[in-house]
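By convention, the token line describes the chain's fold. To illustrate:
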Amino acid sequence: MVIFPEQEHPKKAFGWAARDSSGVLSPFNFSRRETGEKDVRFKILYCGICHSDLHMVKNEWGPAGTGPPSTYPMVPGHEIVGQVTEVGSKVQKYKVGDNVGVGCMVSSCQSCESCANNLENYCPKWIGIFGAKYHDGTTTYGGFSNIMVVDEHFVVRIPDNLPLNGAAPLLCAGITTYSPLKYYGLDKPGMHVGVVGLGGLGHLAVKFAKAMGLKVTVISSSRNKKEEAVKHLGADSFLVTSDEDQIQAAIGTMDGIIDTVSANHPLLPLVGLLKSHGKLVVVGAPDQPPELPVFPLLMGRKMVAGSAIGGIKETQEMIDFAAKHNITADIEVIAINYLNTAMERLAKADVKYRFVIDIGNTLISAP
């Protein structure tokens, strides 16, 4: 086992936590486990802020029955990158000094059909990186903190040409949009794919789709995002949901749609945009169940499906694809003491397109 000399208290950790559903976070001291023989310990340098962090902090999914109930104190954060400071005696893939990342998972059963197919994200016994119970009964804490200890199986390598701050959101927003494009066969050059929403997930969906050679239409309720979508992100066209003429002209033109919106919105108009056999894949997570009439699905053998992150193998594949095509998130880097303001702005969609906390330079231990 290799240990950095400055690690005098290997279990001591600190971060920012929510104590209740008010949404307010504040400094918090806690413990990480000692580094086991298969564990990788790393210093967290950056952590993205995802809309699901906001949902979990405010316990918005639990009461609605659409997701897990929140438990407190909670240290959120699941778009985590940093540098390895210690490795267990049986770790084979990583060494001290490597740039690594961790997303939403820290464990799975490793014996079910999903795990056998590298789909740990669909394991019925998967363990989330925060707000869950680990095998030893301790609570998992996320990346709004200074250090992380994770089994090497759930760690991914960050290629040297990817800036760590821009790479952090790939660990959730990136894989959440890359995985459905690949799984549902919406990755063939020349296909026409719609992307609903131009936020943290949506802007990465556009980048990945364009890198795959697809024709991309951004679908948004905000007219003022057209220039950003087309000129900055390279979308081929822009569709305003409130413009009936635009909607009618686009009926039946898309092979697939990636719906990234986390707010409640109607799905029926999106189904109409699909060709026969088209696929509407929902990756955003509204806090209320959507309404979906069945008849439009029957008449075109259309599909409404879901997708959630990806397995570890696919996540590494996505990171490597991003490195090859120079794909990173468009970010606003913040100090940790701006966190509560950032959460308030995120709730208003006031960010272009992902907040990333500069953990390494701004996180100071709580008293």
Q: What stands out?
A: The first helix runs from residue 51 to 57. The chain has 13 helices and 18 strands.
